[in-house]
Specification:
The protein is mainly α. It has one domain. It contains three helices and no strands.
Length: 86
């Protein structure tokens, strides 16, 4: 069962149509999964289940954005010189 916190955060990003924030959250959770799976000497199962559930909620939020067809495109300030995209 996902925490209300992750659901609230994902819901807010969906309302704001902030795909980038959701993708960043998903990437962080994927990195956490890799680290937990590689950690020697601990039982990572409880943490793995929690991170996997967070990922499920994040993926649902991304799917909602995909279905709506709209999202905010954020461009980092350090790529100002990149050509504008349509």
């Amino acid at each position: 069962m996902p925490s209300n916190t992750i659901e609230s955060i994902v819901s807010a990003y969906v309302r704001l149509k902030n795909r980038r924030a959701l993708e960043d959250m998903r990437e962080l959770r994927r990195q956490l999964l890799g680290g937990l799976q590689a950690a020697p000497g601990i039982n990572p199962r409880p943490a793995l289940r929690h991170v996997e559930e967070d990922l499920r909620v994040i993926e649902q939020g991304l799917e909602q954005l995909h279905e709506s067809g709209t999202y905010v495109r954020l461009i980092k300030a350090d790529v100002k010189t990149a050509p504008a995209q349509p």
